Amino acid sequence: MSHRINVIVHDDVWRFLKKVPQGERSRTINLALHEWAHKRRRLDAAAEMDWLRNDSAAQPVTTAEIVRGSEKTGTADTDGGARGRAGRLGHLEVGSPFRG
Asked: How far is C-alpha 65 from the geometric centre of its chain's CA atoms?
């Protein structure tokens, strides 16, 4: 599904876009945004892994602990166990900057 948006761009970007054939502009912009978003997701994931790796408070969590945490809160594990682990790994609560 496509969506029409209005965007304000800097003059140097506009000069470049004017050189792109009119029928190709949307595809060019969409491809650039897609690549940027993919890179951003990878950087965010890497930052989260670095944070978890370097966090001295982070302790290994077993599958059983995640399941027990979900059972206590009455939630299904639809958020990757974040709510169930909040007691031990509060940094992964819903709303964390690392969650989409």
From this structure: 25
